[in-house]
Structure formats: structure tokens, C-alpha cells
Amino acid sequence: MRNRKTRHLLGNILILASVFILLFTYYPFIKLYFSSSMVSSQNTGYFIAIPKINAYAPIIPNINPWQKSDYLKALSQGVAATQGNPWFLFAHSSDLPWKITRYNTAFLRLGELQKGDQIIINKYGTRYQYEVVEKREVWPDQVQHIKEAGPNRLILMTCTPIGTSLKRLLIFARPL
Q: Is 19 inside any structural domain?
């Protein structure tokens, strides 16, 4: 009888520990769906906010998109702005479960954006607002889109489908 109670107790402890580990691991994903982002007029850094998908992350400027070691480091801290073209921003939509942080899944829900949705860029106190005008999936070798970004065209990029690097999801936006 005592041996049976011990096994039940051990089983319950293992189940609870497993649930705790899963919740801890996937907390950044869960948080994106159930909490609101903290966009305040007092924030004076360089960041992107997308209210519809609850995305809020710092922008890391001047990242070389062709140098993997540079952009991987930047993506763990936020959204990368390409070197020489700050209107082309890219970020992870997912990562390995043990590497998930608050910012390296900044574009997890980017695919939910539709025409007319708002994107806010705050650059050290100056607020820029954009409106989504187009959404497109392209192959990774279709890199000419980097050159399409400019003062009148913001482009956001992430990998799609989530959890893969098969294609790239591009969101095109114009200033309001």
C-alpha cells in the first residue's frame, strides 16, 4: 500500500514538473496572445510597435543582413534594421524552444496583419506611423526586396511557415 502511494505521489510530481517546464518554455509565445504591449509616449528609444498583433520590440540598427553572426546576435535582442536601409526590418517568428526570449519571436504573429493595419516606429522620441498595404510570401533567394524599402515604403520580414525557414513573409507599409 505504501509503495503504491509513493508511486502515485512521484507520478503527480513528475506531471506537475512537466507542465511547469512547458509553461516556462512557451511563456513568450503565450504572452503574445494574452497580454497587451506596453507602448507609452514616454518611451524614447528606437522600437517598433504593432498593436494588432501585440508586437513590441527594440530595433537594433545597422545590421548587415548578409553576415549571419551579426544578425543572429541582433535578433536575440529585437528587430534588426538593415545596414544602410533602416526601412527594411527583419526578425524571428520563432526559435528553438530553449532559445526563446522576449524579443527573438517579435514577428511571431506578423502573418495576421492585413491591409490597413497600423505599424508604429519610435525613433528616439519621434513617432512614425505606417499602414500595411501589401503582404507577400517569397523564396529566401528573392533578395531584391531589400532595395524596395525607403522613406516611403517600410518592409517587415520574417520566416514562414512558423518554425521553418522555407519562405519569407514580407509586409509592405506606407507612411501615414
A: no
- Residue 145 maps to which CATH number? 2.40.260.10
3-state secondary structure 49-113: EEHHHCEEEEEEEEECCCCHHHHHHHHCCCEEEECCEEEEEECCCCCCHHHCCCCCCCCCCHHHC
Cα 83 to Cα 87: distance, rounded to the nearest angstrom: 10
Which residue's C-alpha cell is 545596414?
83
CA pair distance 18, 15, nearest whole angstrom: 5
Q: How confident is the model at residue 148 (pLDDT cuts 50, 70, 90)?
A: confident
Domain count of the fold of the chain: 1
- pTM value? 0.75
Rounded Cα–Cα distance for residues 113 and 55 (Å): 11
